[in-house]
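User: I'm new to structure prediction. If I give you an amino acid sequence, what do you actually give back? Let's try with this one:
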Amino acid sequence: MSMIRDLRAVVRPARPSLLKGGVRKGGVRVDTGAYDTTRDPATPSAVVDCAVYRDGSRVPSTHAPSPQEAMRQVRRDGGFVWIGLHEPTEAEFAGIASEFGLHPLAVEDAVQAHQRPKLERYDDSLFTVFKTIHYIEHDRLTANSEVVETGEVMCFTGKDFFITVRHGGQGSLRALRHRLQDDPELLAKGPSAVLHAIADHVVDGYIAVADAVQDDIDEVETEVFSPGRKGTPRGTDAGRIYQLKREVLEFKRAASPLLRPMQLLSERPMRLIDPDIQKYFRDVADHLARVQEQVIGFDELLNSILQANLAQASVAQNEDMRKITSWAAIIAVPTMVCGVYGMNFDYMPELHWKFGYPVVMSVMVGLCVGIHRTLKRNGWL
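Assistant: Good question. You get back a string of structure tokens that encode the predicted 3D arrangement of the chain. For your 381 residues, that looks like this:
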């Protein structure tokens, strides 16, 4: 147990770094470092890193070995090979799939991507799909703001090999590979230690994104219920709330389906998972369950905020209609009086009375003032 006592510290970096992981140049993500970089379209191979690990250490090599060479070396001298690929084509992945005996259905999923998080067991390997989440920094949330960006990491875990297939610009494993290489005792546990490290890395990313999304929801909630003119809630743009709800739904699609696979890895003995590593999947499952509860809470809270915002908009419309109706009632009094005395009859009372005009004007003004005060006292104006 001593060799994996510091496992959490090894596989979990500081959370802020999970939100970055690279820079963008010209709209294209570019990771810095020697390992696991985003694939250059001009590069003829999808393999971004291939290394043999023996006794927890990376076997030095004068040149980057091909997957076939690395596997032959493992079969001859022991250890395991870790191969990282980025968006391989079917032709590029065919040779690796044949060399390692990967199941055709898993290979098809790995190449085509857009898969649901899952865990599938085959005769000699495990196939795991992770959805990575990246929080997109923004100055202010708008109706068109993109809050989260997703990627995919597919993992093939075998007795003496571990293969990762990444899709999208997010989810770089470069820093994780470095941290594992700095802990030979942990890496000596084999491919299952790498699988746990990736699972923990992905779920820690979920936690960091959930904290950031919580800040956005708090901001929208404050704007919806903050007082506006005359102490009434001012509300906010419903499009912002709806956009944030869509982003939370995308987050939910990434996190929720992964809970069952993590529970299976932690509860059921598996031939390819080291018993010392298996118990740590329970910790990953617990953290993922907490994230799932947060995301469900986000969805319900946004529903409530959206309903409250729509209710405020309805109340504001009713207030406007009450004001319009009140002024229409006030204007109706002089309109009625003027309409009566505007009729061309020869015999009408007070037409030739000396004080007729000032009396009528006074009556109209008095009635208008009285109606205005009554409506204002009742809260219509």
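You can read the tokens as a compact description of the fold. Here is one thing that stands out. Residues 35 and 174 are 5 Å apart (CA to CA).
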